[in-house]
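Input sequence (287 aa), recorded before submission:
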Amino acid sequence: MQARHQHNLLKSDFPFRLFMADNLQFPHHWHEEVEMIYVMEGSLKIGVNNETYSLEPRDIFLIGSGDVHYFPTQLKQKNKAAIIQFRVSLLDNFSIFTGDRRFARLLLSNSKRLGSDWGILIHEELEKQILFLADEYKGKKAGYRLAIMARLYDIVVTLIRQIPMELISDDDRKKHLNRLERLEKVFQHLENNYDKDISIKNVASVANFSMYHFMRFFRETTGMTFGQYMSNFRIGKAEWHLVHTEDPITEIAFKSGFNSIKTFNRVFKKLRGCSPSDYKKQYLRSN
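Predicted structure, token format:
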């Protein structure tokens, strides 16, 4: 449940992976790798930076390198999605051919939702390439890496030709990385202290901000207030204890950083739509 920078997601010799995820949920995180999400079944919510998106079957979402993103819990909503992650270095040769470095700018631009209504022919082309990628990666026949490279090139060509590029200067890139470094310190502090009282003043000092600038920075970067994030984060911790331990609910509440069982029950029901005990029962029935 730790929300932070994900390092070394992929193997260095072939920095690519594709996997299927059921009922996707994951806290705030970011990574250098580019990520594409293709919804196969059900509805899926995703938060990217300070925006939240609802995805439907066949929707495609591109997450740019370094963008903070998360998948909120959807207890009553089943979904299935294909997740594709690849490192920019996999296509270094392609970048050489594009003298104006349009491809690099694409990867550093804001994440984008490419819904099935975005443009039928363009969407169908991207969808076809993603499904080819899935077949090649699953089968791993002779030459599958070359086939994957070819499909990625096709995807990139489509994106470059059809999606407006946003120019990002070196200075803006450095500012973005600095914000991520500060956010990393905040998330690490919360991971180590979520079961204790945490004041905004204290967390602001960890990020080297005044309280006012910290609250603004946090909302702009994560899409929610610090209080909302802490409630979600602590409830996420409580969920783990509910399904993996036999601890009493009162003990779980205090372990997760709530100072009263009444507050814990109220926040849990607000965020998950049911009581902690009902959540545990539903989980046990479905598993």
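Checked by second reader. The two ends are 20 Å apart (CA to CA).
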